[in-house]
Design a protein that fits this description.
By secondary structure, this protein is mainly beta. Helices cover 0% and strands 58% of the residues. The chain contains no helices and 11 strands. The radius of gyration is 13 Å and the shape is globular.
């Protein structure tokens, strides 16, 4: 079982930066992937970025490519989402997710709110 706890959300002006953290506990494997999703009221959850424990490659939604960076600190069991050049449309509840490669995302955090004002 994997537990995920997000933190680091808040309010920022457009053009600013935030770093989200996802503390990971429980059992992970070399094929465990991590991702960040976001969701606004009335819309479906949107995939934002993804990375794998045993893989140096990360993947990003076009809407955040070049502005957001996903990373992991295995020593701290934490996954980060560095968000730069934030836009009002980035405002959402951000969720951390984990799952085995090739399978649906099976573990979710409780979310952390990001609000970007113009």
């Amino acid at each position: 079982q994997v537990q995920l706890v997000e933190s680091g959300g808040g309010s920022v002006q457009a053009g600013g930066s935030l770093r989200l953290s996802c503390a990971v506990s429980g059992t992970t494997t070399s094929s465990t992937n991590f991702a960040w999703f976001r969701q606004t009221p009335g819309k479906s959850r949107e995939w934002v970025a993804e990375t794998a424990i045993g893989d140096a490659i990360s993947y990003y939604a076009d809407s955040v490519k070049g502005r957001f960076t996903i990373s992991q600190d295995n020593a701290k069991n934490t996954v980060y989402l560095q968000m730069n050049s934030l836009k009002p449309e980035d405002s959402a509840m951000y969720y951390c997710a984990a799952g085995e490669r090739g399978r649906p995302w099976s573990h979710w955090g409780q979310g952390t709110q990001v609000t970007v004002s113009s």
